User: What shape does this take?
Amino acid sequence: MTLLWLESSLPMVRIDRNHPASLQRQIYDLIREAILGGALAPGTRIPSTRSLAAELGIARITASNAFDQLIAEGYLETRKGDGTYVGRTLPDDLLALPEDPRLGTRVRPPQLPSHRGQALERLWDQGVYQKAGLRPFQMDAPALDAFPFELWGRLESRHLDRSAAMNLAYCDPAGHPPLREAIAAHLRAHRAMACDPGQIIITHGSRQALNLAAQVLLDPGDAAWIEDPVCPDARTAFTCAGAHLVPVPVDEQGLDVAQGEALAPGARLAYVTPSHQFPLGVTLSLSRRLELLDWAFRAQAWIVEDDFDGEFRYAGKPLASLHGLDRQARVIYLGTFSRALFPGLRLGYMVVPQDLAKAFRSARALADRGSSLVPQMALTDFFNEGHFQRHLRRMRIVYGERRNVLVEAIRQSLGHLLSVRVPDSGLDLVADLEAGSGDVALVRQLARGGIKLIALSSLYQRTPSRSGLVFGFAGFPERSLRAGIGRMVELLGEPG
Assistant: This one.
């Protein structure tokens, strides 16, 4: 290390030839810190680069480059024929911290985002993603242990091998046309939906689809019906769009349309999960579906049908979609492959009315210019070669068995505390707590022991009518489900 004083105006300079930072960077940092720390006052004359280089035994170009950077940033200034000086107006002066009169110290004022940014911060669930592994009974976790990843890898490799540069470039923001054709054919055959590829927009999962729907369909202040209780993602999307949320009760027949009309007859939008209401698991009855469509036509409102679990029905075939009953083009249908295949795929889709297709394509393009092409091409082959339908059939069996194991384990070990009904569809279920039990405190207690559940009451916007626990079962083998219930018994100190 070289240590020396440089003339009377420059404090001690320390350079270390073994330091990972370059000599130029060390000189820059030392002079800058001396200026910001007050050791070199504004207007102080600085020794020349020639003398600095000679004193330190370095090349003059090294010192000159450090000075040039300090001059460019405003810390130093040159005066023609008179040398180099500390700048009289320093850039960091604009960032000077105010004095705290009580302490005599400088304090940094709080830094706040916009009101929208603060709303996003409040709404985001920091616990959605886990750093390592799944915790029972985490939601949004399909059976990754049963997915044909070897087959999927071959499909992706097929298009990477053929790709040249073409398949790695941007594609149509609305999505890969052959994939949209395959999805349209699937929906026509299995969800009773009359749609064509031009109505389909490929998204990064259902969350982006919700955000696009909120952007395109709502203006700030518009009323939007949401189910009560409701999926947090929907609540977040419509809140961040500035909508006035109108919680509409859900009963055994699904969304209570009459209540919605009484609360906000002129609402701009209604959000529903008709095939498998989250979190209660009920199905929207046919009479309610027709009531909802009639209201939307009369009010010239939109219906957002979120069908994230529609493929997984264990009693009979999947139900016909609400979209399939729509004759007035009022329904926007959302689907995702995150649960049907795997979350990391980050592919979902929307089916939008023809009149709105251009607006949604534009919104999708402005959001992020579209999804990666190779996964879309692999998914197209997954559809066209029959793998998608085979996978769904296999997973309905797997998930049905896992559902039954979880229900049995809850009834055997926690039946005195929880009441559970066997759901006909979906990848989650609700277990009601005995009257007077607090689900939020219970969820927190279990979380400390490694069990991840959702408190049913936390999903209500108005006063909760039920207290319970929401279990995800799809992502866990049967032994893990039993072990998870066993762990709950230990944590609760209950007899098993």
About this structure: The chain has a mean pLDDT of 87. The longest strand covers residues 244-251.
